[in-house]
UniProtKB/TrEMBL annotation:
Reactions catalysed: [(1->4)-alpha-D-glucosyl](n) + phosphate = [(1->4)-alpha-D-glucosyl](n-1) + alpha-D-glucose 1-phosphate
Stated name of the protein: Alpha-1,4 glucan phosphorylase
EC number(s) per entry: 2.4.1.1
InterPro entries assigned to the protein according to its UniProt record, in alphabetical order: Glycg_phsphrylas, Glyco_trans_35, Pyridoxal_P_attach_site
Lineage: Bacteria, Bacillati, Actinomycetota, Actinomycetes, Bifidobacteriales
GO cellular component, one term: cytoplasm
Origin: domain of life: Bacteria
Recorded family membership: Belongs to the glycogen phosphorylase family.
Length: 814
């Protein structure tokens, strides 16, 4: 890697204060004396954005004029988190900002807190996209993130009096949003519906309606790279705002119909995670942003050219498809090349296949997107024709390869009834990757086995990562300072494998004690955060044990809550003596998709267990449980550094990678987890003796499915489990109502698809080992230090370097 230098501190804090004052005066229309924290936040955001502008322009110019292939990261979600602190860090303005706002009479923290977190993603997949564009910019690789600027992001989660999840809309654009720059002059037209006709022997699509895709540009500053890339999020506008004729007839609702229809496309993020939602609007969203992005890339790389030579397109930019959501881009590029630019099929296919690559994010078959052919035919008739033709060509290719007919049929992209987007992506691009070693292997062995047999060279792995800027440097300043002290340099922030230099320090008791002090300070800080944000009183002299992630059956929040209930019962019954109880505070955070019945019921159960346990004087000081509302990036940044034990307890073979697991290890939490996703690689790197492993392996899970799984057997066999489930069924957490959780209880006892019950005993047993270690703070913290020291591999910088080498075949700008 080339040596990178920090930008010279461009201004003094007094000058930066003046810049903020100027923004307040000329842009906000308030004086420094009138300004609130929210005003100063907007002004500071604009001031820092100005500092990044020149680097943004040079990066764009070098991207277009240089010979370095760019990366286009196509993703329906970018879960960015708050921007101000990150922008200040990367602009080298953190200290100037702190001093400047103090001189204006504010606390830096209050200004940073005034930012409203944009929630343009559901969870791991969207956060991965955000980490990746941060790393691309930090590595100096020319890149565009392309997505949708949803008007409403992921819902805000609250709980009602019964502990049920209540979803409220996320009005994130209700106040001035200073980061996005809307560029009406770089718009694109995206069309839908209508029919395909033949004119002069050529297919011509006559769409029925169109929307105007307007880009909103976000700066993506690299850390110490002097590069600023672009995140271009599309917003949908109507061409015919208003039907005056209807208005004049007093048909007011009809008058705004065209506008409503068009603008609906970017109105809301689908609040789904890991499940497929077959909604017409969702297909419209996908096509909307992908079509606009492909046309935009042509505009950017062939400026002002009427007849560009698009056979060079794959040398200009390579597109990564983040899951199947943008896969409609494959037939769209074919259509653009053939219908709009007159290329023949084979040339178009060569360009298209070279341009795209596909990241698969799941193993759950129900999460692989399949669209009804009739829906595609209605919305995108020309694309359906192209997909049919791609499928014909694919079948011929398989036949030529000697693939038998039955197998070829199983592999069909187009079945006559439906279109399988994962298969289209696999055939239509150059590479397919899974997101952790185990996941990539299972893709080849199971999910996409036939494809891997027919096209073995396409398949590769890139293990996920997280950005050390946000998730260590910003989230955990105490640990960051200690790491810098230990290594004698802060270069680790952009070269995270340097953390290995801490391995010898794990044997230095003084260093380990300093680490323990940082953890204690982070716990103390989180107690304050929890008091401010949730009104909770938390005992910081307890073990902080955290499970935060989307609520999904395969992630098995049920396993955790059953173990908590069992512990509660043991304390109540006196089966454990007071001396043997290790005081713990258990934190959950999880949103459930609004239509996901069992997931929502699990949230309700956790909330009501929390109520009972936290109000029971018998367990006071020994066990507390909190379901924190609205898990988001801000909560992650505050809770993860304070966590001592984290939970990664999905059923083996179901979590593709996980990235929460990486954030925790990098912040010195010990993990209790299964051999699933990236847990496998984390454990390999941090050492088996520094990781609490339990539960069935993928092979054992498969065997149990094959042998016939009977969860009731496990319920009968372990009295701890039986007691926990009986308490739920008996109404202990529902004021005596025995029906409240009946669907959940019945699922556990008769179905339990993700084998929570089968893994319960191993999970309950390993708690003793965890608690024994925790009673020896020096040894616990030594292992925590070793987790930090050996987790440098899980930087998203490393993930991006793997993509560059294995898939994109490009690199930093010269
Ligand atoms: C990291 C992160 C996730 C992903 O967590 P997993 O445990 O990998 O599922 C989800 N949501 C937020 C807010 C995150 O920061």
């Amino acid at each position: 890697m080339t040596e990178i230098t920090a930008p010279k501190s461009p201004v003094t804090s007094a000058e930066f204060a003046d810049e903020i004052r100027e923004q307040l005066k000329y842009s906000q229309g308030v004086t420094a004396e009138q300004a609130t924290a929210a005003d100063v936040y907007v002004a500071a955001a604009k001031a820092v954005r100005n500092h990044l502008a020149d680097a943004w322009f040079t990066t764009q110019a070098d991207t277009v004029n240089g010979n370095t292939k760019a990366v286009g990261y196509l993703s329906a979600e970018f879960l960015m988190g708050k921007q101000l602190e990150n922008a200040l860090l990367n602009a080298g303005l953190t200290e100037q900002f702190d001093e400047a706002v103090k001189s204006l009479g504010f606390q830096p923290k209050d200004i940073v807190d005034a930012e409203y977190e944009p929630g343009l993603g559901n969870g791991g997949l969207g956060r991965l996209a955000a980490c990746f564009i941060d790393s691309l910019a930090s590595l100096g690789v020319p890149a565009f993130g392309y997505g949708i600027q949803y008007k409403y992001g992921i819902f805000k989660q609250k709980f009602d009096e019964d502990g049920k999840q209540v979803e409220t809309p996320d009005y994130w654009l209700n106040n001035e949003e200073p980061w996005g720059h809307i560029d009406y002059n770089r718009d694109q037209k995206v069309s839908f519906g209508g029919e395909v006709v033949e004119e002069d022997g050529k297919k011509v699509w006559k769409p029925a309606w169109s929307v105007r895709a307007v880009p909103v540009d976000y700066l993506v500053p690299g850390y110490k790279s002097q590069r600023v890339n672009t995140l271009r999020l599309w917003t949908a506008k109507s061409y015919d705002e208003f039907d005056l004729l209807a208005f004049n007839k007093s048909e007011y609702m009809d008058a705004v119909k065209p506008q409503v229809k068009a603008e609906n496309i970017s109105k809301i993020l689908y609040p789904e995670d890991s499940t497929k939602v077959g909604k017409e609007l969702r297909l419209e969203q996908q096509y909307f942003f992908v079509s606009a992005s492909l046309h935009d890339a042509i505009r950017v790389f062939y400026p002002g050219q009427d007849k560009p030579d698009l056979t060079t397109f794959p040398n200009k930019i390579t597109f990564q498809l983040n899951d199947t959501h943008p896969v409609i881009g494959i037939p769209e590029l074919m259509r653009i090349l053939i219908d709009e630019y007159g290329y023949d099929w084979d040339t178009a296919w060569g360009v298209t296949q070279k341009t795209f690559n596909y990241t698969c994010h799941t193993l759950l078959p129900e999460a692989l997107e399949v669209w009804p052919a009739s829906l595609i035919g209605e919305l995108l008739p020309r694309h359906l024709e192209i997909i049919e033709k791609i499928n014909e060509q694919f079948e011929a290719e398989l036949k030529a390869k000697g693939v038998d007919e039955a197998t070829a049929k199983d592999m069909a992209i187009y079945t006559g009834d439906s279109v399988r987007m994962a298969y289209l992506a696999t055939y239509g691009g150059s590479h397919v990757n899974g997101v952790a070693e185990l996941h990539s292997q299972l893709l080849k062995d199971v999910t996409l086995k036939n494809f891997s047999d027919a096209y073995p060279d396409k398949f590769t792995n890139v293990t996920n990562g997280v950005t050390p800027r946000r998730f260590v440097k910003l989230a955990n300043p105490g640990l960051s300072d200690l790491i810098t002290e230990g290594l004698g340099t802060d270069k680790w922030v952009s070269d995270l494998e340097m953390l290995e230099g801490l391995v010898p320090l794990a044997q230095d008791d003084e260093f380990v004690k300093k680490f323990a002090a940082v953890k204690a300070a982070n716990k103390h800080a989180f107690v304050g955060f929890a008091k401010d944000h949730y009104g909770l009183d938390i005992d910081e002299n307890t073990m902080f044990n955290t499970m935060v992630k989307r609520l999904h059956e395969y992630k098995r929040q049920s396993l955790k809550i059953l173990a908590v209930i069992s512990k509660y019962a043991a304390i109540k019954n006196g089966t454990v003596s007071a001396d043997d109880i290790l005081p713990r505070t258990v934190f959950f955070g999880a949103k459930a998709a609004p239509g996901y019945y069992l997931a929502k019921m699990t949230i309700q159960l956790i909330n009501n267990v929390s109520k009972v346990v936290n109000n029971d004087p018998d367990v006071k000081g020994k066990l507390a449980v909190h379901m924190l509302p609205n898990y988001n990036i801000e909560m992650a940044q505050n809770l993860i550094p304070a966590t001592e034990l984290d939970e990664q307890i999905s059923q083996a073979g179901k979590e593709a990678s996980g990235t929460g697991n990486m954030k925790f290890a990098l912040n010195g939490a010990l993990t209790v987890g299964t051999l699933d996703g990236a847990n496998v690689e984390i454990r390999e790197r941090v050492g088996a003796e520094n990781f609490f492993l339990f539960g069935m392996t993928v092979e054992e899970v498969d065997k149990l499915y094959a042998d016939g799984y009977n969860p009731a057997k496990y319920y009968e066999a372990d009295p701890r489990l039986k007691q926990a489930i009986d308490l739920v069924a008996g109404g202990t957490f529902s004021n005596g109502d025995r029906n409240a959780y009946a669907p959940l209880v019945s699922d556990w006892l008769t179905k339990d698809w993700f084998m929570t019950l089968a893994d319960f005993s191993a999970y309950a047993d390993i708690q003793a080992e965890i608690e024994k270690l925790y009673r020896d703070p020096l040894e616990w913290n030594r292992k925590a230090v070793l987790n930090v020291a050996n987790s440098g591999f899980f930087s998203s910088d490393r993930s991006i370097e793997d993509y560059l080498e294995r898939i994109w075949h490009t690199g930093p700008l010269a």
